[in-house]
């Protein structure tokens, strides 16, 4: 019963995420889903007629809906500008070096759609890190990889990215509030 509740939640969450990013995707383009995890979002995007390739590190902690290309978490196994769009959906704060992942995404894709968990105060950062660590039991929490909107924007500008759009969403996940920010950059 608990497993079905979780699966239903993840499926619904994947539909919401896909609906938020879909206007930035092209059915004629090639999409790379970096850090695809269980593949739930990739599965929904594919079911809507998009050409998407999932990629993730080898040590994912659960069953997958789609088989990803496995990589070392450092260098993506694709040629420069292979993809029209790269997705980084709630991935960067789970890495010790978000800049490295972003540089690889920039190398292999023409534009990026990023959704990141963010915070607005020191208290909300503590809440976000603890709640995210509990929600992702086996994923590491990298304290310095959680950033405010201003710090994410500063990092993107440092890497030469230009903002085409951004949106903030206040979500409740298992009753806990989270701030998610979508960035569409190129």
Automatic annotation (TrEMBL):
InterPro entries in the cross-refs: Methyltransf_11, SAM-dependent_MTases_sf
Residue span, Methyltransferase type domain: 32-111
Protein name: Methyltransferase type 11 domain-containing protein
């Amino acid at each position: 019963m608990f497993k079905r509740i979780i699966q239903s939640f993840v499926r619904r969450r994947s539909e919401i995420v896909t609906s938020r990013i879909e206007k930035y995707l092209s059915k004629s383009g090639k999409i790379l889903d970096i850090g695809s995890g269980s593949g739930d979002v990739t599965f929904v995007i594919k079911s809507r007629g998009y050409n998407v390739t999932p990629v993730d590190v080898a040590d994912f902690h659960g069953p997958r809906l789609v088989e990803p290309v496995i990589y070392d978490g450092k260098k993506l196994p694709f040629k420069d500008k292979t993809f029209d769009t790269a997705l980084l959906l709630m991935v960067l704060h789970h890495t010790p070096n978000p800049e490295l992942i972003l540089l690889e995404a920039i190398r292999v894709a023409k534009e990026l759609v990023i959704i990141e968990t963010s915070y607005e105060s020191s208290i909300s950062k503590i809440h976000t890190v603890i709640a995210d660590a509990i929600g992702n039991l086996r994923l590491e929490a990298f304290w310095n990889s959680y950033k405010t909107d201003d710090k994410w924007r500063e990092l993107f500008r440092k890497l030469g990215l230009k903002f085409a759009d951004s949106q903030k969403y206040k979500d409740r996940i298992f009753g806990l509030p989270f701030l998610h920010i979508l960035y569409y950059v190129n």
